[in-house]
Amino acid sequence: MVRKISMAALFVVLAATLLQSTLATNYTVGDSTGWQRPTNNADFYGNWTKNKNFVVGDILVFDFPTGQHDVAVVTEASYNSCTATNAIFNYTNGPAIITLNTTGYHYYICGFSGHCAAGQKLRVDVQNGTNTPSTPGSSPNTPSGGSTPPNSASSLIATLPLIFMSIFLVLFCY
């Protein structure tokens, strides 16, 4: 009896972990433009982040050709001065895939000469919670994969099967 309950509890924990990982949103930085030096809009990536709500667990995909760009994870001071010499980490192979693991501001620049100064830099504000549009009536851009980011309603819908499975397993074990 105890073994059945332990197995049921393990199954519920594994299912919850799996569901949580499916709620993360993949964002292709710059959407179809990708990660490149902006040609006519120095605030291209700043505008790209508008109406997006980045949360812990989301994934940024920096799509760029290896050897033509990189992604340097930097401090705020290095972001402001476009300096990659003391980068926290540097991704040199494209595409670079970065999971947002902590809340707060995260700073990324291209370390190639002149690229950051031309606007190839990104600052994202990562929050706890679920992905919802930042402003009422707005809709976030569709991430790669063709689905929209989950919101509170889709999180509830994704949680309902877990609740029913838990009830079924508890009843099954008794």
From TrEMBL:
<feature type="domain" description="Phytocyanin">
    <location>
        <begin position="25"/>
        <end position="128"/>
    </location>
</feature>
<feature type="compositionally biased region" description="Low complexity">
    <location>
        <begin position="128"/>
        <end position="150"/>
    </location>
</feature>
<protein>
    <submittedName>
        <fullName>Umecyanin-like</fullName>
    </submittedName>
</protein>
<feature type="signal peptide">
    <location>
        <begin position="1"/>
        <end position="24"/>
    </location>
</feature>
<feature type="transmembrane region" description="Helical">
    <location>
        <begin position="153"/>
        <end position="173"/>
    </location>
</feature>
<dbReference type="Pfam" id="PF02298">
    <property type="entry name" value="Cu_bind_like"/>
</dbReference>
<dbReference type="InterPro" id="IPR003245">
    <property type="entry name" value="Phytocyanin_dom"/>
</dbReference>
<feature type="region of interest" description="Disordered">
    <location>
        <begin position="127"/>
        <end position="150"/>
    </location>
</feature>
<dbReference type="GO" id="GO:0009055">
    <property type="term" value="F:electron transfer activity"/>
</dbReference>
<dbReference type="GO" id="GO:0046872">
    <property type="term" value="F:metal ion binding"/>
</dbReference>
<keyword id="KW-0186">Copper</keyword>
<keyword id="KW-0472">Membrane</keyword>
<dbReference type="InterPro" id="IPR039391">
    <property type="entry name" value="Phytocyanin-like"/>
</dbReference>
<keyword id="KW-0732">Signal</keyword>
<keyword id="KW-0812">Transmembrane</keyword>
<dbReference type="GO" id="GO:0005886">
    <property type="term" value="C:plasma membrane"/>
</dbReference>
<dbReference type="InterPro" id="IPR008972">
    <property type="entry name" value="Cupredoxin"/>
</dbReference>
<keyword id="KW-1133">Transmembrane helix</keyword>
<keyword id="KW-0479">Metal-binding</keyword>
<keyword id="KW-0325">Glycoprotein</keyword>
